[in-house]
């Protein structure tokens, strides 16, 4: 299915375009969204008890999410960046891996659209992030998920939660359970590729908004990095909806009912 998208990239224009009704519906936990927002946001509104986990990745035509130096600002244009901020605005919390926190020094705020800033969460099993100044600005909860033996250096206003490390890291379902306990109902996994890939591999990602920019980076990390499969019939086949955002394309992937990575039918 193909849908169009409101062409605006500015917050104040969006507010006049029914966006305030979207925010009200998410605040109230239900309702019908204005027509132009339904295809993308209605699936995020209807959540069950466990937090809905939605990922986003902005990638080039050749599937890269950054250059070889880690530079990624900005692969996508204004419309996609506004969409990312809308996702933040309808989620209670936004999660990044420590790689993104170190490379990008993100603020993870809602700046390009109207809405409330989500809680900011960093997954950092070894306590590698020392500079929290871009993230902890006092206008939203700030949370570190770290390992049992880490000695993180964090400001007083960072809440620290420890999970046990098993195999390759934290079990994404243990992260989901922790976020549920903290009262979050919709969580945006904003990146990077390694973090989103772990959720997807584990079957812990409900949706992914893949934002494809018409550029070719040529080398650098790819977004999704999953365990190898031998035959194409083992590939993950989400239900997809395609939207155009100016010159870019948003593919909304719904993983409900998908078999595990590499699993059999
Ligand atoms: N284009 C986009 O949409 C986008 C979005 C975000 C970031 N980026 C770019 O992506 C790059 C960073 O991405 P990345 O994939 O290298 O790193 P990342 O996903 O930001 O962080 C990965 C690290 O986070 C920790 N981690 C995440 N999930 C974990 C789990 N389940 N258990 C234990 N540890 C976990 C691990 O830390 P340890 O290494 O300490 O074990 C892991 O190596 C940067 O260049 C950034 O600019 C692009």
TrEMBL record:
Gene Ontology biological process terms, A to Z: riboflavin biosynthetic process
Keyword terms, alphabetized: NADP, Oxidoreductase
Protein name: Riboflavin deaminase
A single MF term (Gene Ontology): 5-amino-6-(5-phosphoribosylamino)uracil reductase activity
The keyword Cell inner membrane is annotated on this UniProt entry: no
Short name of one Pfam family: RibD_C
Annotated Bacterial bifunctional deaminase-reductase C-terminal domain residues: 56-231
Pathway: Cofactor biosynthesis; riboflavin biosynthesis
């Amino acid at each position: 299915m193909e849908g169009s998208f409101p062409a605006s990239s500015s917050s104040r224009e969006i507010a006049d375009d029914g966006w305030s009704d979207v925010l009200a519906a998410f605040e109230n936990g239900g309702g019908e969204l204005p027509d132009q927002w339904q295809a993308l946001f209605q699936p995020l509104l209807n959540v069950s008890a466990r937090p809905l986990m939605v990922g986003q990745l902005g990638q080039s035509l050749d599937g890269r999410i950054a250059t070889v130096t880690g530079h990624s600002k900005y692969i996508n244009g204004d419309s996609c960046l506004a969409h990312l901020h809308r996702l933040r605005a309808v989620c209670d919390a936004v999660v990044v891996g420590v790689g993104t926190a170190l490379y990008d020094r993100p603020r993870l705020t809602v700046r390009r659209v109207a809405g409330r800033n989500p809680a900011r969460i960093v997954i950092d099993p070894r306590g590698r992030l020392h500079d929290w100044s871009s993230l902890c600005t006092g206008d939203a909860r700030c949370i570190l998920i770290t390992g049992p033996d880490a000695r993180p250096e964090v400001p007083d206003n960072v809440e620290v939660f420890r999970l046990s490390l098993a195999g390759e890291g934290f079990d994404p379902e243990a992260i989901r359970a922790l976020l549920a306990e903290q009262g979050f109902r919709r969580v945006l996994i904003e990146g990077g590729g390694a973090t989103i890939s772990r959720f997807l591999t584990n079957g812990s990602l409900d949706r992914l908004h893949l934002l494809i920019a018409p550029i070719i980076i040529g080398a650098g990390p790819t977004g999704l990095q999953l365990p190898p499969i031998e035959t194409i019939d083992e590939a993950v086949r989400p239900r997809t909806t395609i939207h155009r955002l100016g010159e870019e394309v948003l593919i909304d992937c719904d993983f409900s009912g998908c078999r595990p990575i590499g699993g059999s039918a």
